Amino acid sequence: MDTELSVLNANPTRIPGPNLLHHLITPSCELPAIDHLSRGQTTLYSYRQLHDAADAIANRISNHCAFTGRPRPDLVVPVLIHQSPLLYVSLLAILKAGGAFCPLYIDAPPERIRFILNDVSAEMVLVSDDLVPRIPSDVDVELIRVDRMDAYACAGAPDHRKPTPEDLAYVMYTSGSTGTPKGVGISHSAATQALLAHHRHIPSFSRFLQFAAPTFDVSVFEIFFPLFRGSTLISVPREEMLDDLPMVLRNMHIDACELTPTVAGSLLRKREHAPKLKLLLTIGEMLNSLVVNEFGGCPGKESVLWAMYGPTEATIHWYDA
Fold first, then answer.
1. 235 phi/psi in degrees, rounded to 5
2. pLDDT of 186-232, one tens digit each?
3. Per-residue b or e along 183-217, where b marks 16 or more CB atoms closer than 10 Å to that residue's CB
4. How many structural domains does the chain have?
């Protein structure tokens, strides 16, 4: 049956739109792109500030490539940064510089980080100052400290490598908890088509919570889809979200988020805990009756529930009939 279905859909229609992941991002303007809350303090980035900050780090990446004389078409840049505006700026910067981003596990042991750095032949790592000690000192890589982006903005604007739609946009690795970490690379073309396909179906929203860890491929959708829509990406430290998710949703006026059914059922639990929520996307697990009954529709209660597939698992399959 699976083969028959694949054959029947052997010539899917390509969705019109940008074919590079960073070209999906809303252009520079004064609309709010990122709203970050940490320990009661908020930081707001407009789309102009997002692009300016990303351009500064992209300059640093391209200047390093020019200095070493090795502008590679398969440049994969690992990233070790907590969920924050610095993370989102850095991912965009890598794409603007013509590379592919590869998020690293914050809590991974040194040998696992070392393996990934060697596996992707990393020449540089984007890292925040507080996480520099987690990078193994015996690996020969350039550390680009993203906290210092203001200095990079003054370094001059080099020519960035121009990627093709078939070049890698990102690489995701498994945790390696059951053996050697395994990486999957996704092209710009595959990533953009996945997001454009969702755009046709998902209702509008204003403020989208970025919940997933950056090493979980769902984060690619959470980060880039709201920024493609021109909405506001809401960023909160992971420990604060896990401590009281309903309070985060209420205080940040979040109307859309993406959670596993386990998280939705255990941390969110009731729709009245997030009265502004009008879109709950679930992913990563089979839906359960608890979540369906609470967030699904019935007479007198509109559904806010959508079941999703991850952007990596939904873009790597190719069947040549």
1. -120, 130
2. 999 999 999 998 998 899 999 999 999 999 989 999 999 999 999 99
3. eebbbbbbbbbbbbebeeeeeebbbbbbbbebbbb
4. 1
Closest CA to 32 of 188, 233, 228, 187: 233
Q: How far is CA 30 from CA 21, 34, 51, 57, 95, in A?
A: 21, 11, 11, 20, 22
Q: pTM, whole model, 2 decimals? A: 0.90
User: pLDDT per residue over 226-276, tens digit each?
Assistant: 999 999 999 999 999 999 999 999 999 999 999 999 999 999 999 899 999
Residue with tokens 């769902």: 218
- Edge-to-edge strand order for the sheet containing 305-307? 41-46, 32-38, 232-235, 207-209, 256-259, 279-282, 305-307
| 104 in a structural domain | yes
Domain span at residue 137 reads 2-307
317 is a domain residue:
no
